[in-house]
Amino acid sequence: xxxxxxxxxxAELKALRKPVRNVNKEWRDHLSHSEAVxxxxxxxxxxxxxxxxxxxxxxxxxxxNAFAPASLIFDSAWxxxxxxxxxxxxxxxxxxxxxxxxxxxxxxxxxxVEQEYDLSLKSEREIEVILENLEDQNKVLRRLEKALExxxxxxxxxxxxGEEMPExxxxxxE
Length: 174
What we know:
The chain is mainly alpha-helical. The chain is built from five helices and no strands.
């Protein structure tokens, strides 16, 4: 008979564990100053608040220059060359920053996915150990149940000639 493999104990399982890392903190700590600036711009420029700000700014600019008194107009109506120039400069400056920020966010996502994969593997390993322990417990319970059944089997005694049948004790009478 081969010796059965015992499931890992809790201490053995804990010894196999790698410490859980906070990849979000590690990732933030390794950012250079320029990467942090690019991320800040990406997070704020890519928001609805910034969109509304630009929309309101452009709408006010166009309304002012279309309907204000001639002496107060600073950008000729319907051409809006200064507004186009400002918007183009903003696009030229912000587009590369947003792209750099999105690349950084993508790298961060990849790091988080990698950690989630490691945690899934760890969880799977721990679940397997739990299942092995349950299976081992089931085997022990079956052996105990079988032993109890063996003890509960009625003992059939036969008397030889001239002897009386012994009385059954309460424990056997069940």
